[in-house]
Amino acid sequence: MNGTERLYETDAYLTRCEATVLSARKLTGEDHTESGCSLELILDKTVFFPEGGGQSCDIGWICSAGNDGGHRSGMLAVTDVQIKDGVIRHTVSCPEDNCGLFLPGEQVLLQINWERRFGFMQNHTGEHILSGLMHNRYGFDNIGFHLSDNSVTLDVNGQLSEEEILLLEWEANEVIYRNLPVKVSYPDSEKLGEISYRSKIEIEGQVRLVTIPEVDVCACCATHVGMTGEIGLIKIVKTLRFNGGMRLFIACGRRAFALMQKRQQRIEEVSHLTNRSQDEIGDGVKHLLDEIGELKQKNRDLEYKAAFLRLETIPKDQKNVFLFVGDMDNIVQRNLVNKLCEEHDGFCGVFAGSDKEGRYRYIIGSRQMDSRDVQKALREKLGAKGGGKPEMIQGSVTGTESCIAEVLP
Fold first, then answer.
1. What pLDDT is attached to residue 66?
2. CATH 3.40.50.720 matches 5-112
């Protein structure tokens, strides 16, 4: 079987083409759809980029044209494109009565989802710019890349400070403003030996280089924009540090613009809620947090007073004292248990929650006994989760007050 001509490699802006079916196979099992069938087609040429190099595949549509040139089916969905054993395989979802139309020798029309493709082109080229700048300035290597409908991540084997991240983002957008060409070339082995380029893997056979002058030279099989100005915007959304390296979450082009619009709306909402200008929302949020902290302290003080008034009603000689209260601050709950343990022998505990919720948070302590014995009983009888030391345990348990009380000593 002859190989598939990869039109996307020579023209990333080509959205449609005619092709000939070389092979058609009906998929079964997990690949079968409830509304029809799934076919795996191998074609003599394609505009669909298959999944590879960290980038998700193109999706789109296919139409059986027939050898007489007339359309014999509607536009059917191409849901997946993969390379297996060096062969590009297109997965097509279609009704059962159309499965027989795609026979070897059949003429078909292909059309990709261009909006999705162009978004991938913007984001993949943006990744090249960031990776190239980091490699040239800091000597870091790109060790992982993922581009899907929902996220773009870039892993590097070094770490940048917050100031360096901001500078990197600034320089990346300067590359956009310069509107540099993004060139694709296929140098022979002799010429390739003279070129310094980035590559995450060892490549056998012909190497496809993507070059952005003065910024990056990288071996890559994916689709890219023709000029950096087409990206529009590069935004580093957040970073995670791990094992001496870091992961950059990025958004480029339309994705970055949509993200900035959404964030602007959120900033405006916070501005209204805090009654501060957008430039002052940080101060406004801090003011609200301070007020909340003061209210929490007042509520904690009231809980203290109510709890210790309740303690006065408990006989001093009572052993094994357990109180069931409503929602209570954890600090108040712990201090209440400490006070009970000072005044009573045996086990003392406080369960915060309600029968309506059917769940309680508990803290249990003892001066003379191993509190973990109570934890064991609660776990065995009611599936409680928690732990601690002999003098004090804490956890949570599902059940009503009466069910829990039956388990307690």
1. 58
2. no
